[in-house]
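Lab meeting prep.
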Amino acid sequence: MNVLHNIERLLPEEIEKRSFEIISKELEEHGIEIPKEQEMVTKRVIHTSADFDYTKTLVFSKNAVQIAKGLIINGADIVTDTNMALAGVNKKALARFGGEAHCFMADAEVARIAKKRGTTRAAVSMEMAFMLDKPVIFAIGNAPTALIQLYEMMREGTWKPAFIIGVPVGFVNVEAAKELIIGTDVPHIVNRGRKGGSNVAAAICNALLYELGRD
C-alpha cells in the first residue's frame, strides 16, 4: 500500500486549522459535547497532546475561563514551573495586555534556598512569585511540589494566587496535589489523574490568549 496517498498536502498555516477540524469531527462522532466556555481550552489541549481523555479529566472551577481571561485583560502575569512551559507561552500575545511570563527555576537564589531547606526549586519558585506586585496566573505542568507549596501558602494565609492551571504530569504526589487545588476556592483549571505536562500548561495559557484575540 502506498501511504503517500493518505498524506494531505497542506500549507503550514493550514495545518492547525485542519487539526482542529479533525478534533471537532471526532468529538462529534463520539457524541462528546464540551461546554461552550471550555471548548477552545479543551480542544487546544487535545491538539497539543492528541489525547481525547482530556475531555473527561479537565476540571474547570465555576466561570474559570471567564475569570482567567479577565485577569489577562487586566495585566496579570503568568508564572510557570518549567522553562519549557515558559517557552511555550505566547509572550507577545500576553504583552498586548500588559502581562509578562516568568519562570524562576534557574534563579541562583531559588537554587540556594531549595538546597538549604531540602526542598525543590519548584516549591521555592512559587514563593518568588509572591514578589510580583500584581495578580499572578500559575501554569504548573511538571512539579506537584509547586501545587503543594501554593496550597500551603493559601492555608497559612501567606498569599492567595489569582488563578491556578494545575496540570503536572507524573506518578509521585501528582494526583493528590491536583486534588488539593480542586478543593480550594481559587479559580482553576486542573487535570485530574497522572496526565499533563509543560506543553499542556502552555497550551491552556495560549488557548486563553488566542480566545482574547478573537473577542
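Slide two material, second protein:
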Amino acid sequence: MKRSLVIFYAIITYALAELMWWGYMLVSLQPRRFAMIMGEGSMFIIVFLLGAYHMQTSVRKERKLMEQKRNFLLSVTHELKSPLASIKILLQTIQKRDLSKAQILDFIDKSLLDVERLDDMVENMLLAAKIENSSYTFPKAQFNLSVLVDSIVNRLQITKCDCNQQIINAEIEPKIEITGDKFALTSVVTNLVENAVKYSKPCMAVDVKLFQKDGKVFFQVADHGIGISDSEKTRIFDKFYRVGSEDTRNTKGTGLGLYIVKEVLDKHQASIRVKDNRPAGSVFEVVFA
C-alpha cells in the first residue's frame, strides 16, 4: 500500500510539472492568449487537484478498512482458539483422569459455557454479514423482554470472584412486552452486557436495568471500567472499530458487537446513546419508543 501511495504522488507531481511546462510553452508561443491559457489551465489544475484529493481519500479509507479487517481476522482467530483450547483441555482431563462425578459435571458446565461463547461469536458474525448484504428481514413478533434480559443476565453471570459474589446487578421490571425481532434483540442485549463485563476490571460490578417510563421502555447497562473518550463515542458503532490502540489493547473482541447493536436498534426505531458513568466507566442506554 505504501508503494502504491508513493507511485500515486509521483504521478501527480509529474502531471502537474508537465502541465505547467506546456502552459509556459503555449504562453511563449501565443502571448496574446495569455488570459485564456491561464484561465483554462487554472480550471484544469483545480479539477485535477480535486480528483487527486478524492482519490487519495478513497485510498486512505481503503487502507484503513484493510487494516481493520486484518485486525478483525486476528481477533477472530484468537477468540476461536481460546475457548476451543479450554474445551480441549477440559475434555482431555475428563478422559485421562479418574474424576469424581461432581468434578466431571463441573468440567462439563465449564465446557458448555465456552460452547455458548463460541455460539454467540458465530451468531454475531453471521448476523453482521446478513445485515451488511441486506439479506436479513428482521421478522417481528410480540415477546416478553423482561424474561429475555433476565435469561441473558443469568447466563452471563460470573460468580468466581472473592466471596463468590455476583458481578451483574440486575433490576428488571417484570412483564415488559415489546414487538420486535427476538433473535436480533437477543444479540443486542448479549453484546451490551458482555461488553460491560469485558471492559471492566475483574469482579467489578455491572448494573443492568430494564424499566418503563412515560410509555417508553428503557434498557440500561452501566459499568465502572475504562470508559470511552468523547472523540470515540461517535465511532464505537462503526464496523470493526474497537476502543483504544491496536498496539496496547488487551481486551478481546471482533469490533462487530456495537455495530450489530446499532443496526438492529435502527431497524426497531429504537435509539441508543452512551454517556459517562460516575466516577468511572460508561452507561449505554437503549430506548424503545
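Talking points for slide two:
The first strand starts at residue 141 and ends at 144.
DSSP finds seven helices and seven strands in the chain.
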